[in-house]
Structure formats: C-alpha cells, structure tokens
TrEMBL record:
The keyword Signal applies. It comes from the Eukaryota. It holds the Pfam family Glyco_hydro_2_N2. The lineage of its organism: Eukaryota, Sar, Alveolata, Dinophyceae, Gonyaulacales. This is Beta-mannosidase-like galactose-binding domain-containing protein.
Amino acid sequence: FQTPAALHSDMAKLVSVVAFLWSVEGALHVVDFHNSSWTLTNGNGSVSIKVANATNTHLNLMQAGVLQGDPYYRDNEVAWRWVALEAWTYSTSFASTAEVLAQTRQTLRCQVDTISSILINGREVGRTYDAFVASELDVTGLLRAAGLANTLQVVIHPPLQYAAKQARKYP
C-alpha cells in the first residue's frame, strides 16, 4: 500500500493547476489558487466534493472516500476506470480588486497537465493540450466589479475520447 503522497507522485496526473497570475500593465497582481477552496464535480453532477487543492481527480476522490482502497490492488484499476471516462470540473471563486479592474488588460496564466477548457464566469477563455506549455489567456472585460465573486472553472476532458477524436483525423 502506498501513502497518498507516493500515490500522488506515481499516478498519472489528470490535472495540475500550477499557478494563476493576473498580469496588469507594469505590475503583477498574483492570485494563487493552490490553497483555495475548490469543488470537483463530474459531468452529470452525481459526484461533487470539496477539495483543498485542484491537483489530481483520483487522489481527490480517494481523499473524499468516493474511491476506496489501493488503486493497484486486484481489479481496482478496472473498477475505477469510470473516473477517466468522465469529464470533471474543478471550480473556485475569487474577488477582483479595483486595482486589477482599472488596468487595460487582465491575463490569466495557468498550466494544466491534460486536455482542458478554462472558463471565467461561465465563458470559455482557453483550452490546454500540453502539460509542458503554460497558457496565457486574455480575460479582459470578463471580471466582475470589485468585491463581487468571479468563478474559475477548469474542465478536464476525458483523455480517451480526445485521443479517439484526434486519431479519426488521420487515415
């Protein structure tokens, strides 16, 4: 049996939200979402859990008791494959500041370790396809007034479906 920390480093990461930075002209206002309160929800809403960090769907589901036991024990890998076949959404809220809103451009910088869509207040601002490429997404005009809640969502797309779609593009 592996500890959650060892399991986290050994399992294929579905998502790794590294950092989000609001770039404003001549200044950098950092909003670090690593220790934010996140919600992880599957595509049909039948699973919805609170998580401390948006890091790994399997690990988060194990910590919440949705997945029980060791993923490498007997047939658990097969029993848990439903996780990889579903879309998962990590979501959190944050407030904008007057200082950020006063700038002419706001940018969301992130790095996600899988195929994903990134949304601000329900509007898609970008997609990720590569763990080694950071994304810089223009969110100018999408943030709500200072003090009001904004929503950040990272939708993790099922990798098998994405791979099958990409394969169909080639003879």
